Amino acid sequence: MRNVVIVGYGMAGARLADEIRRRDPKAERVSVTVLGDEAHHAYNRVLLSSVVAGSLTPEAVRLHDTDWAAEHHVDLRLGGGVTKIDRTRRVVHVGDTEVPYDSLVLATGARSWVPPTPGLLDGNGELAPGAVAFRSLDDCARIVAKASPGTPVAVLGGGLLGLEAARGLAGRGCLVTVVHPVGHLMERQLDAGAGRVLATTLQGLGIEFRLGALATGYTPGEGLELNDGTHVPADLVVVSAGVRAETSLADEAGLDVDRGILVDDALRTSDPRVHAIGDCAQHVGTVSGLVQPAWEQAAVLADRLTGVAPAARYAGTTVVTRLKARDVDLAALGDVHVDVDSADDEVLCFQDPARGRYAKLVLRDDRVTGAIVLGAPDAAAAITQLYDRGLPAPTDRLALLLGRALPAENVASPADLPAAAVVCRCNTVSKGQLVGAWRAGATTLSSIAEVTRAGTGCGGCKDAVCGIVDWLAASQPQSA
Fold this sequence. Notes:
Layout: E1 2-7, H1 11-23, E2 30-36, H2 48-53, H3 68-71, E3 74-78, E4 84-86, E5 91-94, E6 97-100, E7 103-106, E8 110-112, E9 131-133, H4 137-146, E10 152-156, H5 160-171, E11 175-180, H6 192-203, E12 207-211, E13 215-219, E14 223-226, E15 231-233, E16 236-239, E17 243-245, H7 248-252, E18 261-263, E19 274-276, E20 281-283, E21 286-287, H8 291-306, E22 320-322, E23 330-334, E24 346-352, E25 357-364, E26 367-374, H9 377-389, H10 397-401, E27 422-424, E28 429-430, H11 431-439, H12 445-452, H13 462-475
Parallel strand pairs: 1-2, 1-7, 2-3, 7-19, 9-16, 10-11, 10-16, 11-12, 18-20
Antiparallel strand pairs: 4-5, 5-6, 8-17, 13-14, 14-15, 20-21, 22-23, 23-26, 24-25, 25-26, 27-28
């Protein structure tokens, strides 16, 4: 039996253990040991903003219950971080204990990056009183404990996670100001026009912004000083200024590391007995911060480690970024940083800031290569399907941007959706898979999620999955 040790019990490590047991349910071929440094069972980090907002409880975002390990023949060890990897002897050290491995998988994730703002760290290198990172379930508990209505809060960072935290805190009645060093929000995923419309939309929800501003000092209980000479009062500062891949173990073990742990298409590091997946891994020059690539990597690696598909390879992931913030519908995909006068691309833009709408569509050879859609969920759904399936765009581009023209094969109802259409991007679940699971007896939303995992990622597909389940129940009733 092959002994697989997984370092990290976050979304990537937990998914890999699940995928291995799906292929080897009775542990006949592979033994699995999972080492997690947090005391919690695995949880969905993507949904932490909903915990901050109060719309989900910590228990609701758990990926595994307390009986999962025993029921799935997994040796799960919580609350003890790995301190060293001995590649010569093939053991990892957890305190005074040595854990042997045949194959080692690093799923160590990423850590919050703390900007070098004077006063933000105390003398021990920890965040000063009143400052909290936004990365873990424990961080959420600390934020919620301080987030009473009327509390002035500053959020450092206007990226995806920072804005989700800001929206959740504003929903709790906090007085939120986002401080962002770039001139527009979410600059990795949005162009300047979309960033401006998003800021206007969020301002209408009670969030203030200081854009193009750097925090030059922090005083606990008082707030932030900015480089323009202004002051942002804050009893709480939420740090969400980006993450860095957690590569220290790999680096100390002599593995090749750049911005992440370097892996090939087989997800092997420079030591073929050691693999890496998720936020800590760097594949083809890209360190991902989204769940979909991590879960696709877990499936590929499980195929290889169990011998189900020894030739399985990871070829990269096309991702769609969605802002999970109440009353804001935003999707961004592909290459959006293309000028309207590009010689190689067809670029269309539509702006309606007063109604919180912005759309940008980038086409090459009549196919979608990039898009930003804010405030137009119908257009976002149609464009995402075109992007996923490589279908040609309708000739009426403006109608598509406005959500009034659907692709020929798009969905007017669940019945019209092609079986191959991807419904849940995080888990790559198609309509056909949902129908198959329903016909096999998974006739409720929870059972469909358990069998296919649809809806267990970012939660953005929940309405679509519900619609398909309702359609199946109405059109194909189960016999008594």
